[in-house]
């Protein structure tokens, strides 16, 4: 995961334009809000990235913890959300010192593909300790073994068409083909899971899990799972 952390901590071109970046984070935030159980909930966004629309998530809960491994991104989060008393920014290491059974909802969106299978197991154990009995973990944007880059490109172009950045998307795809992202994806690869395999992982970590009807974000060919911590 360290190579991917360094990539996302750099000046990367994963978003084809400012509009793409903004609508991406806005949709993620709205999808997360749909899982928040109540206005009194404590929510954890694990490896949250830039989380530009985290303010929208914070509006729907009592406390939002943004946990981010990349130090540069974490610094920007601290600066961006300093005025918001509902939001706290933490490193992943700091989660180990948080009070157990203190979180109502945890979200790991577009994270598992950048981890080894063992790293994911460790993360699930950390999050499981923090969740209250009956609390939920939402694991989103899981790549399937039978879905390749062509489906990702098609999903991006549909998203671009819906939000008016098709030209930027085409230029961005050309840039990505020559970028560090493509090189890393080719060298390291992205972790993929079949539906039964991911449910098995979540079950082994102490959850009751099922696939959600819709994926978080714009790519319907990827999967989201909702896992409930066993009492």
From TrEMBL:
Residues 43-135 form the Methyltransferase domain. GO terms for biological process: methylation. This is Methyltransferase type 12. It comes from the Bacteria. GO terms for molecular function: methyltransferase activity. It holds the Pfam family Methyltransf_25. Keywords: Methyltransferase, Transferase. InterPro entries: Methyltransf_25, SAM-dependent_MTases_sf.
């Amino acid at each position: 995961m360290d190579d991917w952390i360094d990539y996302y901590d750099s000046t990367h071109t994963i978003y084809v334009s400012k509009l793409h970046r903004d609508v991406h984070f806005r949709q993620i935030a709205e999808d997360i809000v749909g899982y928040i159980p109540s206005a009194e909930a404590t929510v954890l966004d694990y490896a949250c990235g830039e989380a530009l629309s985290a303010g929208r998530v914070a509006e729907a809960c009592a406390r939002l913890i943004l946990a981010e491994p990349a130090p540069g991104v974490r610094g920007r989060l601290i600066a961006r959300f300093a005025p918001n008393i509902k939001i706290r920014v933490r490193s992943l290491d700091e989660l180990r010192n948080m009070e157990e059974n203190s979180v109502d909802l945890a979200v790991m969106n577009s994270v598992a593909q950048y981890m080894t299978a063992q790293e994911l197991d460790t993360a699930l154990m950390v999050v499981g300790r923090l969740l209250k009995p009956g609390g939920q973990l939402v694991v989103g944007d899981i790549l399937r073994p039978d879905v390749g880059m062509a489906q990702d490109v098609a999903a991006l172009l549909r998203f671009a068409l819906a939000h008016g950045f098709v030209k930027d998307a085409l230029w961005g795809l050309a840039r990505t083909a020559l970028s560090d992202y493509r090189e890393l994806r080719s060298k390291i690869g992205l972790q993929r899971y079949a539906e039964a395999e991911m449910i098995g992982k979540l079950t082994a970590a102490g959850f009751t899990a099922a696939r959600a009807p819709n994926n978080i974000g714009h790519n319907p060919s990827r999967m989201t799972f909702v896992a409930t911590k066993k009492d």
